[in-house]
Specification:
Structural class: alpha/beta
Helix content: 40-55%
Strand content: 15-25%
Distance between the termini: 40 Å
Number of strands: 9
CATH architecture of the largest domain: Alpha-Beta Complex
Low-confidence stretches: none
Number of domains: 2
CATH topology of the largest domain: Spore Coat Polysaccharide Biosynthesis Protein SpsA, Chain A
Shape: globular
CATH class of the largest domain: Alpha Beta
Mean pLDDT: 91
Largest sheet: 9 strands, mixed
Order of helices and strands: EHEHEHEEHEEEHHEHHHH
Length: about 290
C-alpha cells in the first residue's frame, strides 16, 4: 500500500525538524509527503524547503493567511490546500500528521499493515505520548476508542465515502462516527506510540479548548445527558471544576445562539446511540 501524507505547519520551526528526521528514517516511506506552511512568520518555510530539496518525495507548499486561525477549521483548510495540490494520485491511504510529532521508525509500515490485514478498517492510528521527566506518558486527552486528530490515517475508499473532512471544529470526531455509520472500523493501536512535542491545546489554552468543545458537542447534536457526562469527566482534571463549567457554558452559548449543526439528524442520532453504548460498556467493565 502507498501512503500520501499531509502536514499543516504554522510557526513550527522548533518542532518540524524532529518530525522530518523521524520521517526520513521510516522503514516504509510515503509516496508523497506534502508539508504546507500556513502563513508562518518564523523560519518554518526554510525548514520545509531544505527538506524538499534533499528528498524528492517531500513537497513544499505555502498558504498565505486570509484571517485569524481558528482551531479545527484552519488546520483542515490547510490540509485541503495540500491535498488539492498533490502530485501523486496513486495512493491507498491518506494521512494527516501534525508538525509537532516524532514518529517511531515503523509507524507508516505498522499503519499500512493494519489496513492490509483487515479490509474493513477505514481509519487507523496510534496514540500520543508526552515526555514527563525521563518517562513518556499518554496524553490526558487520550481515549482508546478515538484516534487523535494529530495522527489520523484513512483508507482512500473510506475517506471518499465519508466525504472527506469537515472544515469545522469537531472534524476529528465526526470523521470517525461517519466512518462507523458507513460500516467501517476505527482502529486504535495503543502500542504504537507517537511523541507529541507539546501538549494538546497548549497553543490556545485548556479553558478555551473546553469552551470550544462544549460548542462542538452542540454542533454534532449531543444531548444534555452526554453533555453532562463530558462535563463531569472534566471536573477531575486541573483546574478541575473550571474545565467542566467552561464546556457547559460553551454548549449553552451554542444552544441559545442556535449555532449551526455540522451533522445531519441521522448521523447525530447514530453518534448519541454510540456514545451511550460506550458508557454502558465502561460501566459494565467497572
Amino acid at each position: 500500500m502507498k501512503a500520501l501524507i499531509i502536514t499543516p505547519a504554522c510557526n513550527e520551526e522548533n518542532h518540524l525538524p524532529e518530525l522530518i528526521n523521524s520521517m526520513i528514517h521510516q522503514s516504509v516511506l510515503p509516496i508523497e509527503w506534502i508539508i504546507v506552511d500556513d502563513g508562518s512568520t518564523d523560519n518554518t518555510s526554510n525548514v520545509i524547503q531544505k527538506a524538499a530539496v534533499n528528498y524528492s518525495w517531500i513537497s513544499y507548499l505555502r498558504k498565505e493567511k486570509t484571517g485569524d486561525r481558528s482551531p479545527g477549521k484552519s488546520v483542515i483548510e490547510t490540509f485541503y490546500f495540500g491535498f488539492d495540490n498533490r502530485k501523486n494520485l496513486e495512493y491507498d491511504v491518506v494521512m494527516k500528521l501534525d508538525a509537532d510529532l516524532v514518529l517511531p521508525p515503523d509507524y507508516i509500515r505498522t499503519v499500512l499493515a493494519q489496513f492490509t490485514l483487515n479490509d474493513k478498517i477505514g481509519i487507523c492510528g496510534g496514540v500520543c505520548v508526552i515526555q514527563e521527566g525521563k518517562k513518556y506518558i499518554l496524553e490526558k486527552e487520550t481515549n482508546l476508542d478515538h484516534i487523535r486528530g494529530a495522527i489520523k490515517s484513512y483508507k482512500k475508499l473510506c475517506f471518499n465515502e465519508i466525504g472527506g473532512l469537515l472544515k469545522e471544529m469537531g472534524w476529528d470526531t465526526v470523521d470517525e462516527h461517519s466512518a462507523r455509520f458507513h460500516g467501517w472500523i476505527v482502529k486504535v493501536m495503543p502500542d504504537l506510540k507517537v511523541v507529541h512535542q507539546r501538549s494538546t491545546h497548549q497553543e490556545y489554552g485548556f479553558v478555551k479548548a473546553a469552551f470550544r468543545n462544549g460548542r462542538m458537542l452542540y454542533s454534532i447534536r449531543m444531548d444534555v445527558g452526554l453533555l453532562l457526562t463530558n462535563c463531569f469527566k472534566k471536573i477531575y482534571r486541573k483546574p478541575y471544576f473550571v474545565l467542566g463549567m467552561a464546556m457547559l457554558f460553551g454548549y449553552l452559548k451554542a444552544f441559545f445562539q442556535r449555532d449551526k449543526k455540522i451533522v445531519d439528524p441521522d448521523l447525530g442520532r447514530f453518534i448519541r446511540q454510540y456514545r451511550y453504548k460506550q458508557i454502558v460498556k465502561k460501566y459494565i467493565r467497572n
